[in-house]
Design goal:
The protein is an all-alpha fold. Helix content is 72%, strand content 0%. α2 runs antiparallel to α9 (223-252) and α3 runs antiparallel to α7 (170-187).
Length: 334
């Protein structure tokens, strides 16, 4: 998640430099064909092009609205994970009394669960977005998109950690292990049946939150909206220089100097680049918000949220060596 109020031009150019070069070359090619080669027939009326632009803007607006809904739902789900994590720790400390080791195991296992869930959600899928090399290098340098499951052994016993290595869904088995541990505590009369029901209600909610995350992760944004949004945007930006020729040509007659006419007509190049960049950027914003768990610039900061939960729960255990808060990298909080 980008946290600075204004997006730096370094980030903007990482995403846009290829398109800016292409738009400049395309507009210059159309201008050269029209002006130097004398292909006066290639200009098109701007009125139908403006209708296309309005339609594309509405379509992009719909896509961006739905993409933002996916991101915001993901953020609300992780807000629920934060809240129920604190509830779990509070229940453990209040209901499992006079057994510090059991309290530590149950809370440590929960910390392992949130990190396992984060790691599972960060794994790339077949429909994950691919950026240009300069953007990918930035994310690779930060190293947060596909982290290895390296912190779980710190919070689990060697036997439990070994058992989880071959599991398809580690987070699911960690919640199952919590339930099995509660069953053992009930048999040992360390908790009551009523206590066990309270714990199971908590575990049920954790499963619900995990399932909601997996629903967003495993269900791609409807491709008919995502794909045709891109197609329509590029149809518009490719036709744009031809329409701007018509607009600027109609204003030339008011200029007396030939040099002024040439310079005025050449203005269609920067204006074409600017309008094309605006439309493709709006389309790109929607694409980058489709999948909120990929560990990219606009995604839910799961690493920071996991660390917040970790700090809170360890502090509730009265541990002293608390881990530091996650700091943003290049103004990106992961």
């Amino acid at each position: 998640m980008y946290i600075k109020r204004n997006i730096s031009w370094n980030i903007i150019l990482r995403f846009a430099w290829k398109n800016l070069i292409f738009f400049s070359l395309w507009a210059a090619t159309v201008f050269s064909a029209y002006y130097f080669l004398g292909w006066k027939h290639i200009d098109i009326p701007f009125q139908p092009l403006s209708v296309i632009g309005i339609a594309v803007a509405f379509y992009i607006g719909f896509k961006n609205s739905q993409s933002y809904d996916r991101f915001w739902e993901g953020r609300k789900i992780w807000g629920g994970i934060v809240n129920y994590s604190r509830t779990w720790a509070n229940n453990v400390l209040a209901l499992v009394q006079d057994d510090k080791e059991t309290q530590r195991i149950l809370i440590y296992r929960h910390i392992a669960w949130i990190n396992a869930l984060r790691i599972q959600l960060r794994q790339p899928s077949s429909f994950s977005i691919k950026e240009n090399k300069s953007v990918e290098k930035l994310f690779d340098r930060h190293g947060e998109r596909n982290p290895v499951c390296s912190r779980l052994d710190k919070y689990l016993s060697p036997e439990e950690d070994q058992d989880l290595e071959n599991r398809k869904n580690v987070a699911t088995h960690l919640v199952k292990n919590q339930a099995q541990h509660l069953k053992k505590l009930l048999a040992e009369e360390k908790i009551t049946e009523f206590d066990k029901q309270i714990f199971h209600n908590n575990l049920e909610e954790l499963y619900n939150l995990q399932g909601k995350c997996e629903r967003i992760k495993n269900t791609p944004f409807p491709r008919q909206y995502a794909y045709f949004s891109t197609v329509f945007t590029w149809i518009f930006v490719l036709l744009l220089p031809f329409g701007l020729l018509s607009v600027f040509e109609s204003e030339i007659v008011e200029l007396n100097s030939i040099t002024q006419q040439e310079l005025f007509l050449a203005l269609m190049i920067p204006f074409s680049v600017l309008i094309s960049w605006i439309f493709t950027t709006m389309e790109k914003v929607g694409s980058n918000s489709e999948d909120p768990f990929e560990g990219r610039i606009n995604d839910v900061p799961m690493t920071a949220l996991c660390r917040t939960i970790e700090i809170d729960l360890l502090d509730m255990l009265d541990e002293k060596n608390l881990p530091p808060k996650i700091q943003p990298q290049d103004n990106i909080l992961y």
